[in-house]
Amino acid sequence: MFSDPGLMPPGVYAWIPELFNQPVWLTIAGALVVAGFVNAGNMADGANGLLASIALVFFGVGYWLTPTGYYWSAILALSVFLIVNVTTGRIFLGDFGSYAVSASVAFSGLALYAAGNVSIWLLGSLLAYPCHELVRVTVSRLLKRQSPLQAGNDHLHNRLFAYFRSKVGNQVVANSLTGCTIGLLSAVVPGVLAVTGTVDASDSQAWLTYFLAYAVLHLLAYRQLKVLNVGR
C-alpha cells in the first residue's frame, strides 16, 4: 500500500478519527484486511465452487462499477474454472490459488472503495460468507480454548456438505451443491440487488442492515445443522 497510496487515500476514510487517518496507520490496517481476507478465503475454499462463485460475483459487481479489462479477465478465468470445478471436482484452487484469488478480491475491494462510489457494507455483503465464518470459527474456538488457526471440520460448509451427502450419496454432487448453494445465497443475492438498482450501491445504511441480517441467518443456519447433528 506504500507503493500505491491511492488504494487507501485518507480522504476516503474521513470517518476514521484524524489521529489514525494517517498513511502509516491506513497501510497497517489495509495489510491486516488483506491478510485477514486471504485467510478467510482459504478457509472458505472447502467446497466446489464456493470461493470461486463468491469471487466471480464480486468481480462482476466490480466490472459493473468500473468496467476494466482486469475485472473482465478475472470473470472469464473464474467462469471457466467454476464450470470445470463444479461439474468434475477434479480441478481445484488449492492453497496458492485460494490465496491468489482472495488477495485479488481484497485489493480490488480497497480500490473500489477508494473510488468512492460504493458502500463498504456492499463489499462486505458480497464477501459475507468467508468474513462471517472466519469470525464465527475464531470466536467459537477461543471460547473452547482451542487454536483458531488449526484445521477443522467445524465450518458451516462442512456441515452443509454432510447434509447433502446424506441426501444424494454422491460426494462430488454433494460438494458442488454445497459450494453453489452458499455462493448463491451469500454473494449472488446482494450482487443482483446492487446491479439491478434494487438497493443503491452507495446506500451504507441499507447495506449495513443487509450485512447484519445475513450474519443472523448465517448463525441460525449453522445452529440448525448442528441441532440435526450434521457433520459432527
Q: What would your notes on this structure say?
A:
There is one protein chain. The protein is globular, with a radius of gyration of 18 Å. The model has no long low-confidence stretch (mean pLDDT about 90). It has helices at about 25-45, 50-65, 70-90, 95-115, 120-125, 130-145, 155-170, 170-195, 205-225. The chain has nine helices and no strands. The chain starts with about 20 loop residues before the first helix and ends in a 5-residue tail after the last helix. The chain has one domain (about 5-225). By secondary structure, it is an all-alpha fold. About 70% of the residues lie in helices and about 0% in strands. Helix 2 (about 50-65) runs parallel beside helix 4, helix 5 packs parallel to helix 9 (about 205-225) and helix 7 packs across helix 9.
Run of helices and strands: HHHHHHHHH
Query: Structural class, from secondary structure content?
Result: mainly alpha
**Helix run count:** 9
Helix content: over 70%
Q: How many beta-strand elements?
A: 0
Overall number of domains: 1
Low-confidence regions: none
Radius of gyration: 18 Å
* pLDDT averaged over residues: 89
Topology:
Elements: H1 23-44, H2 50-65, H3 69-88, H4 94-115, H5 120-126, H6 128-143, H7 156-168, H8 171-195, H9 204-227
Helix pairs in contact: 1-4, 1-6, 2-3, 2-4, 2-8, 3-8, 5-9, 6-9, 7-8, 7-9
At a glance:
The protein has nine helices and no strands. It has 232 residues and is mostly helical.
List its traits.
232 residues; mainly alpha
